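Long-time lurker. I teach an intro course on protein structure, and each term I like to show students one example going from raw sequence to a predicted 3D structure in token notation. This year I'd like something fresh instead of my usual example. Would anyone be willing to generate the tokens for the chain below so I can use it in lecture? Attribution to the forum is fine with me.
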Amino acid sequence: MWALGFIVLVNRDMSNTDGTVLLNNLLQKLDKLSLLSWEDTDTGPAHAPEWHSTCKLDGDVIGTGSSSTKAAAKDAAAKEALKKLNQPTPSDDTSSSDNISPSEDTSSGPSNDISP
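-- Reply from a regular --
Happy to contribute to a lecture. Here you go:
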């Protein structure tokens, strides 16, 4: 019974990081995850910080977010990044992250023909 309660708690916490998970999954599919970086800072008193998160892809800012928790600020930045990358965000689409695909249709083969 305890294990079941733990799983429910973990699932509830994951709902606050859906944008971060979707962004990581997308970039992993595109083999670009190594280009992702984060800058997290906090301001205000220790008992009530305001977290600010900046999401960067290859050094370029693609999303920013602020919240009272670090995870929520990071998630907000990830959702902004997903919008900038023309991907659905958890608030736009509640389906699973398995539905994320590159914005290009690759069903007919690579769209970028590179000739020697």
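Some talking points for your students: The longest strand covers residues 36-43. Residues 1-14, 93-116 have pLDDT under 50 and may be disordered.
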